[in-house]
Amino acid sequence: MIGAVVSMTFALWSCSPNTGNTSQNKNKAIDMEATGDFEVAEITAAPNVPAPVGKRGPKKLIINLETTEIESIIADTFSYTFWTFNNIVPGSFIRVREGDEIQLNLKNAENSILPHNIDLHAVNGPGGGAEATFASPGQEASFTFKALNPGLYVYHCAAPPVPQHIGNGMYGLILVEPEGGLEPVDKEFYIMQGEFYAKTSSRSSKLLEFDNDKGNDENPTYVLFNGKKGSMLGPNMLEAKVGDKIRLFIGNGGPNLVSSFHVIGEIFDNVYTEGGSTVTHNVQTTLIPAGGATIVEFTVEVPGEYNIVDHSLSRTFNKGALGKIKVTGEQNPKVFKKN
Question: Where do the domains of the chain lie, and which CATH numbers do they carry?
Fold first, then answer.
């Protein structure tokens, strides 16, 4: 996917970490101590991303993920039976370097009902790791792979029925940085879109669960960023300052719909199509296929609140695909002025 141009193109990416990591963002499956030659990697919950790899050489890293089946708020007062990686939707953001050797440990929680596994689109090997990590409730599985291709990639559960596992929230992103690292920016955020096909559970009128008929019809009840209506609204808005260069790592978990990703009031300076080496400039809206990921960069020149939307706008206004970036700082009347 990424050829000789990677060093030049990917040098435009960031070397600046995000803040706000909490204990839920950290690996839990094994000790945080390094094991042998392997070092446990930092992973984070959306919208945060781990620290960039910088100019370091290749390492041996351990990634620990646990698959769980939990109930949590999806919208307003309604809960949903989510299936997750590490109890969060989307799953933890994984950040590695081209050439890293990665041992991925997957544990399926004892109280899960179904088997789970993981298919990482960054893996060159059978099933992207899905065959090697198939784990029944209470079991653990592991495999090792080498990160060969720089880029931003989706991972997801690939246990049957695959659309239901993905539709319940089992997806996330893995970023493989190129040799030499990425150019610094001021802010980086992790956003992942997904569809939820919901019906009322027989256990409670306030509990929703997956509706297979709606899934087959590709008619979602909700289309959401980061697994919850309002995940980036109110006190959860993303924050930046005038003059900040912002990078968004955006994934589309699907399982079915294409995202028409747009930030109202901004033009993307750079769009890395499919998270790879093909870069386009001055883009208003970018398409992200189900199971795909894209990186966008832009600089905010004027203070205010900027809406993040899927420009298939019925999803935004009727199904929840809405977030905001709150930008503070001095007005810039040469760029924008209300008369």
Answer: 6-184 (2.60.40.420), 188-328 (2.60.40.420)
